[in-house]
Amino acid sequence: MENAGKVGLFGAAGAIGQSIAGALGAAGRDYRVIGRSHSALQAAFSQDPRAEIATWNPDEPASIAAAARGLQTAVYLVGVPYNQFETHPPLMEKTLAGLRAAGVERLILIGTVYPYGHARSNPVTETHPREPHTFKGRMRLAQENLVLDAHGRDGLSTLVLRLPDFYGPRIERSFLNGVFEGAARGTRAQMIGPIDVPHEFVFVPDVGPVVETLTRTPQAYGRWLHLAGAGTITQREVAAKAYALAGREPRLMVVGKPMLRVLGLFNPILREMVEMNYLMSEPFVLDDSALQGLIGPIRKTSYEEGIRLAFEAAKDALKVAA
Question: What is the DSSP string of 3-57?
Answer without folding.
Answer: ----EEEETTTSHHHHHHHHHHHHTT--EEEEES-HHHHHHHHTT-TTEEEEE--
